[in-house]
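Many introductory courses stop at the sequence. We go one step further.
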Amino acid sequence: MIKVNQACIDLIKSFEGLEFKPYHGQHDPPRLFTIGYGTTRYPDGKWVSLSDPPITEQQASMFLLHDIEAKANAIDPFLRDDLSENQFAALISFAYNCGEGALRSSTLLRRVNENPIHTSIRDAFMMWVKDENHNTVPGLVRRRTAEADLYFTT
């Protein structure tokens, strides 16, 4: 597996933001709650609930690193082995936000595995900027742009 780099961690932190108390995200299913930098399940496997106590920044960072490693392990088997750390980092961020299932069935993955330096990969990132009502979400446009920029950073 390719090493998870600091650029991956920084990108995810910048888009997820930090919440010390559990909350319900605007686009989350009704019973899904989040804490820290987008954590929905604690490292012990327990789901986040609204009644959980606040956490510290150190705990949030620990949860994030656990979540990133889990995403990296989940997506690594269906990626080619010759990706750069930044390419892998961008795909982890994508999977962190959209889910590894979304990546697995995406045009993005197909294009990466066909030719990891093809410029059409940037367009494939941008296919994932709409909400459930098919409206373009500016925050998703910014995130996909940042992911694509990181992907193409040598």
